[in-house]
Batch of 4 targets.
Target 1
Amino acid sequence: MTVTPHTAMTCAPVACAVRSISEAAGSLPLHIYKRLPDGGKEKATDHPLYSLLHDAPNNFAPAALFRTQLMADALLQPYGGFAQIVRVDGKPYELLRLDPRLSSIVVDYSNFEPAYAIKADGKNPAREIPAAEIIHIPTPAYDPSRGLVGEGRDVIALALVLERHASRLFGNAARPSGVLSLKGTMTEDTLKNAKAAWQASQGGDKSGGTAVLPADASWQALTFNSVDSQFLEMRTYAVAEIARLFRVPLHMLMQVDRAQPRSIESIGQEFLSQALLPRLKSFEQELELKLLTPEERSQYAIEFNIDGFARADLLARAQALSATVSARILNPNEARQIGFGLPAYEGGDVFENFNTSSAHAGGALNAGNDNNQEAA
């Protein structure tokens, strides 16, 4: 069984695991923030990189698609995913994903600092790329030259073999093969002709019909054995092995273990902390290293906004924002913008909850007074 990044994606559990991570990375907002003297940060919307990272890295691919494809490359391809930085006057102007189908990248680690080159093909010679001009999202594999698919080849091959076996089995009307016996001494040509005649009348969509055998022939159908009866369990095991390979919770591969004692929410948090966050952090730090100058790295940070995961649950989002406003972590205008994309309103920049704070003159507990403690 030949397993490549492209054949691996024909395996449904692998495709589901890769899409779970890559599409999550593509759907999360990516911002560049300016570090503030008090230790906080704010969006640097006036920085030239902001639109490049948040909106579109070039004039033909939106940012979400670019990040999704680059993360998928990192999970599937040897060495990981790559994008070339196009600079104008020394500043990043656009980012171009290097499609592994068109540009095969090799990385040389022999001199500690990685050296990048595009392999030669029939039309173009080999071409080196300076490390400063390429974004490299590394594979999580221990051996980068093999990639995660190469290291998990046997696991993926098992799932592919089981899928193909199921396809052949049900393509034959879910009936196992049998033995056609001919009496007497038969030549090789006679056996070939008998087999061809049987398959022509009983093979494929003609199976299950009435068979007519000559007097000196007999047919014995084979029945399922104990190995066949464990086929479903083997497929379940193969899916679990792929989940382990990509560190994705089993329910993310659309297979729910009934014996799972934890809630879906806790498993979702496990996916975020173990499968997604390590990949996002690697993505963020590579962008900071290659797109920001050494001086800018002390002033700016490039980060994914993982709060986007809460958008799917309106109640959870509203409750979380209400708690942050009450705790004076966010003011109402910040909560409106983060959670619902609503515009600011006058007076909403105050770090108080107007509905519950008795310290505020307009609070519900102080309606009708002038907030004078002596008068109260």
Target 2
Amino acid sequence: MMDAAARMTARMAIPPGSLGLLEQQVQKLFRAWPKFYERIRPYHYIFAADNGVVTAGVVRQEQTITYLQAKNMVEGRAAISCFCKAQNVPYAVVDVGINRHEAVGLDRKVAQGTKNFLESPAMTEREFWQAYDAGAEMVQRAQVAGCNLLSFGEMGIGNTTTSTAVLHALTGASLLEITGYGANPGHPEIVLRKREVIHAAVQKYRPLMKATQGIIRCVGGFDIAALCGAMMACHERKIPFMLDGFITAVALACAARIEPAVCAMAIPSHMSQEPGMLYALQAAGIRPDEVPIQAGLRLGEGTGAILGLSMLRTMLYTVYNMKTMDELLLESCGAAK
């Protein structure tokens, strides 16, 4: 038995299933939408924030890179800016916690970065909900503007550490298996330090992390809180979204723990090089063979999501514009006569 989404792809004049994962993804898109649309009206959000845990020695980069790169995005000169422009996707940087007094892009600054979670919880409960609500607000804005597909990215030095900490606390996955280099390839001492810091913090705050929100509050970042809020809002408003890499996958794992049905809105794009990606996807009910792009990406910002969106948009156009099997058969009958 096929539902309406499967019937839409089954009518195409191709051998059944010959477009593989692309057919599955466009079917998921149809099922997520409240009705079938003939074109995608996208919007991309990059949530930017600094992470106080960088002072614990978990990265080699200067924290000011978050501010500088977020400005670069707004000015249209970052990788994600170029990806969005090449695909004609409008985008916005949402400052939920960059460590500067002035805001970059849309000002939803909760604080000038989280606190070092090795010393105290990363954020207060009020700060968590402020970031979470900022993410939900962006989805509302996009829906009012007529968008029917969103994609998400992030920017923040140290956010592979916060994401790994959240994933470890959420799933119990081994730090030996999920801790990666982030933006520090070739520096094994950084990986060791990240494991050490995360283990200490998770042990310290375990009594405060009974709920998913508590996990993000204690060892997460404002970007993860905003992403989680945005994904939950997508579920509530029936707006599907393209998943990007590791940080967004961890945010989805959090949202899925709060409301499992949110996974029906999430369309994966690429398999991040971060070793925790597989575990984050698994926590969200997504198998590796459901991820179409295997390109060794690990930049973030939503670059993989925009590539995935371009493939999905191509597939949607094909569904509506290629000849159907019925039309082909009618032509065949006419030719036979």
Target 3
Amino acid sequence: MTTGTTETAGTAGAAGAAGAAGAAGTTRPAGAAETAQTTPPTTGTSEARGSRGQRAGSGSGRLRRTLLASVVAAAVALPVSAAASPDVPAPAATTFAEGTGAPARYAANRAAIAEAARMAEDAGRTGRAGRLRAMEAAGTAQFLAFDGGGKGRAVEVFGDLESADRVTVLVPGSDTTLDTYQRFRAGAVALQQRLQAEHPRSAVVAWLGYDTPGTISTTVLTADRAEQAAAELGPFLHRLRDLAAPGARLSLLCHSYGSVVCARTATGSTVSDMVFYGSPGTASGSADELATGARVWAGRGSGDWIAKVPHVRLGGIGLGADPVDPAFGARAFAAGTAGHSDYLKPGTESLDSLAAIVLGTTSDPEAPRA
């Protein structure tokens, strides 16, 4: 996407090898739980009864394999993008003492980005160097965190965080790296402009604070990477409240695989609203299972291919229930005709809906009951 939130390809892609394994039922992705098991013969006096038991077990195993294969096949059939980030030299990430204010963090991280760009240029990685210079924005960017190693991590603020009483954190999905960062940033900018037009004391935080899974990988089919990210996101949200205006209302907007990250994050009363959009599932069975006191929202545009991803979860593979299904228990919001990467595109119904949730100006429908 050019103006959307995260990946053009989206979250649910997986390796073709995993699809072959799921279809054949002979192997499984590394680290994944076995999804088909051999059923032991049924004991008893009747040979026919034992045979029936074996056939039933075989049928059950075939069903599991078929479901897993359908998850992978549906994902692989979708368009994909974003190559692996190059391995380039970078300075060590800057660490800050507890209580360091936002301006000091911004200045230190701008210097770190400039140094990372220089090192990338010296290493012949001109593409990465150019992208880093764009991130640094000629000395005006506001980064709370930056790490140029590997795929990279970055946490950027749009707006005046210290005076903001409406703060939104965007959590991206798969294949969001320093090399694809500009499309993530574009969505954050569009949301900030939309919010400030109605409420000047708004700030948006683009949180690329985890190693996102690759679209073409088995990692994107499990919650493992999300669990690791949640351990980073939870503490960050608590610290963020200390950097914003006293009593600021904090919202968490979670795109694609980012919805899995948010669903695994224990936010307690820190967050007012948690919003899933373009979600393939959250690895949770319902909104009631989430460790949050926030209102939980879910929406999907009519042009979003993620709707075709099967909502199954077997042996840790798959991301489970569909958040836009009323049975999940989330509040629904109108997403219009948004495609997977278009939810934060200027002028869209989805952007208007997300802004209204953040600002608290929605009609606040009650969550449906299963």
Target 4
Amino acid sequence: MYSFIARQPVFDKNMSTVAYELLFRDGMTNRFPDVSSEYATKQIISDLFLSTSLPKLVGNNRCFINFPPEMIVEGFADILPHDKVVIEILETAEPNDELYSAVRRLHGWGYKLALDDFKMENGWERFMPFISIVKFDIRAYSFEEISQYVRQQKKYLSKVKLLAEKVETAEEFEQYKKFGFHLYQGYFYSKPEIIKNKRLTPGKVLQFELIQEVNRPNPDLFKIEKYLKSDLTLSYTLMRYTKNVLFTNRGIERGKNSTLKDTLLWLGINEVRRFVSISCLTNLGTVTTDELYHMSLVRGMFCERIAKATGHDHLASDAFFCGLFSLLDTILGISYEDLFKQITLTDNVVNALAKHEGMLYQFLYLARLYEQQDWDNAAQIMESFGLEQETVIDAMNHSTQFADMIIA
């Protein structure tokens, strides 16, 4: 069976990524594969040890892994590294004696445990001293219901971190943050707060001028060099990028005394375009989470690969920038309407981002459906393109690895 692991970030109150929840998937035709929760968990454990290493998936962060209660009792969680994994007890669990003994055992060995989609039922009170995190599904319960329960159970929850999951708006994030929740999951961080008539600073304008120059049909190398020299950080980053990423991966040696101009000539315009766009993007924003940049990089590479997979090679470059800039309104806190008055991008990219029109938007839409695990609508897009799900999964896996490498 073709299988892969999806991941969803877990944030703290400062919007910093502190963990990832790992989710088993075997395709894109259903929201969850037609397999048992036991099979899904065993497959994740197998993949972590036999194919994809844990550090590659989560870096220095912890990961949350769902465990059916039977597997916890049977000892399947015991084989995972206690300093990297949070054992997530599924909502189907009953607070019985067998599970209580297993939870105490794991806690004694240094494991962190979480209660998933907590139903706020009686019987879990004795578990709380051994539970690190309680997850509340804010789509299943209202804020009033959750806050009332937390107040009533303050005695038992005093040393437990509270996690709000399925947080979809900035308002919900602020509401639970103000109440005292510690952790969050959801797509609230990618919803823009539009600030009308906000102007870009001169430094940001310069970076966009650089982006525009490298994307002209016949870019002026002297102008590019001048722009880069006016921004010491960009110049240094280019030299480091060239040495640590490109040359390391391709096994090619570069002269030790290469100048900035030498580096630009050696790279070629296509690689310079990619570097400039990625570097300027990560220097433009004021957001506090790297997840937005990571998602932008994933979307860029994914859209490029899908363009090529569907026979639209001539759109590959624009597809990359469409995906890369798809969160620019959120990163900058400025609407696309105002943004496009200040910078120039190709009509294809503008139509996709501002008007949700054209082939590029279809590539971007597929990326967003994948992120949201909306497999039904994703399947329709794939069918219209004649794409096999393995092709799309490979494109996303490759794109995630690309983003991980750049962020690192």
